[in-house]
Amino acid sequence: MFVATKIRIFCYLRSVILSGKELSDRLKAGMAREVATFPSRYGRVPHLAVLLVGDDPASVTYVRNKARASEKIGIRNTTITLPATTSEDELLGRIAALNDDPDVDGILVQLPLPPHIDELKAIKAIAREKDVDGFHPENVAALWRRRTEPEENPQYCVPCTPRGIIRLIKEAGVRIEGRRAVVIGRSNIVGLPISKLLLNENATVTICHSRTVGLGEITREADILVVAIGDPEFIKGDMVKEGAVVIDVGINRRPDGTLCGDVDFKEVAPRASVITPVPGGVGPMTICMLMENTIDCFINRENSKLER
Ligand code: NDP
User: Fold this and answer.
1) Does 2 score more than 80 pLDDT?
2) Is the CB of 203 under 6 A from ligand 1?
3) pTM to 2 decimals?
4) Residue 159: CB within 6 Å of ligand 1?
5) pLDDT band at 150 (very low <50, low <70, confident <90, very high)
6) Nearest atom (ligand 1) to Cα of 286
7) pLDDT tens per residue, range 269-279
8) Long-range contacts of residues 24-29, Cβ cutoff 8 Å, at least 24 apart
9) Known active-site residue 89
């Protein structure tokens, strides 16, 4: 019993807990310094417009956090809050006005939208060059077409959470090329884009979902395991290979109100070489990458003015 406990502590200490909070704070401080130079270089600062329809509590919190992050960095933020009864036409009209506004660099429509509004229609309505979420079909197509990293081709925004995950993995000094990556989840927001980004980095990628048969056998082969399911502590220790890099995207609320991920941290951390916590892992990186996407859109727009 004593020996087992000792080994467990040793193994636990061996794993690196990857703090997205620390990295995002560092990146945001760098962005603040960069944005402070924009008034003299460009005569203005980047401007992010956020549209919130309704008062879903989680969405209200996300939108508030986006406004706070913008403010800290020096990015101008306009949050437009519309009632849940807003018609699709009214929302599309608001988006069109923001597209036409030369002072707006990034537009974000907070999802989910009320059921009477077609989300894809709203996403498609955003001008591609102002689509800071990277959800516009043209930006999605650009991601799936090209092989290069977003940093090499910033004309297209890559969805924020996957972009943040790649940053975190690279920051930890993890080699991606040639390694076996398993992604659980195939959503447009996380699962699919992170799969493509890992593929861009020359990982060999397997995508799993709710109909996957023999999930544990597949996850046990992963050198890099990305979990984006939305099921509290679903991934147990015996589903993870010794020494794997485990990225937990899930954000779930336990019955007692505390947050947890899709990975059972206590069981998995002792086996992993690197693991992200929840909270404080992928979550802070998402907002941080939204800020980067906004700055990228701003710079692209300013540069295109010079080319004209
Ligand atoms: P979705 O509900 O859109 O997708 C969930 C995916 O998980 C689906 O592809 C589904 O499969 C798959 N899945 C569900 N149950 C299982 C299972 N038992 N075994 C295997 N696959 C399963 O969720 P999102 O991708 O939007 O979000 C996933 C999680 O990440 C949520 O907890 C969300 O809150 C969190 N999140 C966190 C962010 C952050 O910043 N940290 C940002 C975005 C999301 P199928 O396709 O077959 O239904």
Assistant:
1) no
2) no
3) 0.93
4) no
5) low
6) 40
7) 999 999 999 99
8) 24/164, 24/284, 24/285, 24/287, 24/288, 25/284, 27/167, 27/288, 27/292, 28/69, 28/72, 28/73, 28/288, 28/291
9) no
